[in-house]
Amino acid sequence: MVKKQIIKDNSYVYGFHKKESSVFKTPLGINNSIVEAISHHKSEPAWMTKIRTDAYKIFKNYELPKWGPDLSGIDFSGIHYYNSPTNQKFKNWLDVPKDIKDTYEKIGVPQAEKKFLAGVGAQYDSEVVYHNLKNEWEKLGVIFVDTDTALRKYPELFREYFGTLIPTADNKFSALNTAVWSGGSFLYVPKNVKVEIPLQAYFRINANAMGQFERTLIIAEEGSYVHYIEGCSAPIYTGDSLHSAVVEVIVKKGARVRYTTVQNWSNNVYNLVTKRMLISEEGVGEWVDGNLGSKINMKYPSLILAGKGARGELLSLAYAGKGQHQDAGGKAIHLAPYTTSTITSKSVSVGGGRSSYRGMVRIASGAKGAKSFVRCDALLLDELSRSDTYPVNIVHEQDVTLGHEASVSKIGEQQLFYLMSRGLSETQATSLIVNGFIEPIVKELPLEYAVELNRLINLSMENAIA
């Protein structure tokens, strides 16, 4: 096998890597023995081992999806499915091994925790190495741990909800995740508790030819509130890595959950994620999804409006640069009367990048008075780039309101001329127009994340337009 080397890309600020460290690492490829070895290493109960091995059988029997981006380049035999960098989990940054700690300090996670977060989880390759929740929220009964710890400490709660929204057999990659999952966040918010400060998890791939398969489960009891933020990044290698997460969010009666993602994977990562949110009566569920980087991104967060008066919103931003295909969007499934959903999708394509909106609205029989509105706006920055829209609307009820709008535009020469006549360079003028275009999404992010997202987009554009 040819050794895969790290490569430099000055447009990707998180493309650095540290020397790989492992206390336990599976060999390349996947088989039943490797799945069992992961479960054994984690000292899991027999029922979880069986879930894993059953999932592996399903994964083997499923073909790759025939729709969407071409995934035939994924070499499932050339990936490490588990790598543990340390035997310990830490609650103090000072105790985290230096190379790992330096990585998160360079990204800015410890600083963010000090300034404006209620708790932080940090996953490095396959394991969460740091996890902490401030005492004031622990005293109110909030549980915020990595998912492996939740399986050990809260097995009954874990088993009650695990896999209820995204069954193992939902798709090939949900089956793969269930077979080899490791890490992720488990968040439980008790009745009427409102976590007023965001919680964050950060997922970092460091090793070469690595698969990361975190599993996140959030349960918000009646009348509660929480805002969960996740960030993602990886070094740039000449070989490809695979990130395939599963996220399940349960929003009980009158509760509200906001789930924000700012992913910035390097362009050698296949990002194939299944995310689903169940919203009960008068509950509110929100996805805010920022997609930068990755070789191929396929992600369609879903809103299942299961209770009367439930509301859901999806705000999706995709930025596709050279050699990237952002296939993003969302789903809203109305199962109850007087439910409301809004899907807003913005995409920017530059340097030959391709962005696609792929979404579905389904209104079931009996969902009287349901309302849904979808808006997709695409911005092309050159003649090489491409944008597509693939909407599906399925309505089985008469008394509903459903709207869909889509637009594709280019930056006009008059706009550029006006801004450049005021002393801006072409790159600066283009960035200003793009920032205005994505502003409806960015304004929903906490200030620090909005600033960082704009900075990352501007840096990517400088290299694409120059």
Describe this structure in words.
Helices cover 25% and strands 36% of the residues. α1 (32-41) runs antiparallel to α2 and α2 (46-61) packs antiparallel against α8. The relative contact order is 0.10. The protein folds into two domains: 24-299, no CATH class; 413-466, no CATH class. The protein has helices at 32-41, 46-61, 98-107, 109-116, 135-138, 147-153, 155-161, 172-180, 413-420, 426-442, 447-465, and strands at residues 24-25, 83-84, 119-124, 127-133, 143-146, 185-189, 199-204, 211-212, 215-220, 225-233, 241-243, 246-251, 256-265, 269-279, 284-293, 296-299, 302-305, 311-320, 325-334, 340-349, 354-363, 371-380, 386-395, 401-410. The strands form three sheets. Strands 5, 6, 8, 9, 11, 12, 14, 16, 17, 19, 21 and 23 form a twelve-stranded mixed beta sheet that branches. It has a ten-stranded mixed beta sheet with strand order 4-3-7-10-13-15-18-20-22-24. The chain is an alpha/beta fold.
Key attributes of the depicted protein:
globular; 466 residues; 11 helices; 2 domains; 12-stranded mixed sheet; alpha/beta; 10-stranded mixed sheet
Largest sheet: 12 strands, mixed
Average pLDDT reading: 87
Helicity, in percent? 10-25%
Judged by helices, strands and strand pairing, the structural class is alpha/beta
Provide the β-strand percentage band: 35-45%
The parts where pLDDT drops under 50 for at least 5 residues are: 1-17
Rg result: 22 Å
